[in-house]
Amino acid sequence: MDDVWLDDEEMAAWLRLIAIVELLPGVLDSQLRRDAGLTHFEYFVLAVLSEADDRTLRMTALAHRTNATLARLSHVVRRLEERGLVERFPCPEDARATNARLTTNGWDAVVAAAPGHVANVRSHVLDALTAEQVRQLTEVGDALLARLDPKGKMTALYRPEGS
To answer: Which residues on neighbouring strands pair with residue 102, listed in sequence order?
Structure first.
């Protein structure tokens, strides 16, 4: 089998994507740590819970929606519990499962952190693009996620029912 190397245009695109993948998490994390005392992943967990019915999800569902292992998620939720932002309790429908629920303090933390987070996303990502480039970024993201997430584990978050 012959090796198929990247051509110059493909290499340029790939290296830029890698740079973004490496730099963006630090930009998001730094702002949230400074302004809200949360890591980006902690904020993501709180935000996912804030969107759920009754602000509650089974830990397994929360792990799927955040693309985390149960072990990592349990560690993060324990830290959030210690801060009074989340509470865990046995699932009423399945005693073997555990639910995580956003507390009132957790809701307040998400509400307080969201404006700064959105401003940071705008400043470092969206404001750098034209409206057409934002549309193209969505299309590129959809194309890559179709390969990276064929079962829709993560993309279900971004696709309202029926779209």
So the answer is: 86
β-bridge partners, 58:
99
Confidence band of 63 (pLDDT split at 50, 70, 90): very high
- With 0-12 CB in 10 A as exposed, 13-18 as middle and 19+ as buried, what is 48? buried
0.90 cut: is pTM over it? no
Q: Give the whole-angstrom CA distance, residue 90 versus residue 59.
A: 10
Q: What HEC string does 46-113 produce?
A: HHHHHHCHHHEEEHHHHHHHHCCCHHHHHHHHHHHHHCCCEEEEECCCCCCCEEEEECHHHHHHHHHH
Chain segment 10-47, per-residue pLDDT in tens:
999 999 999 999 999 999 999 999 999 999 999 999 99
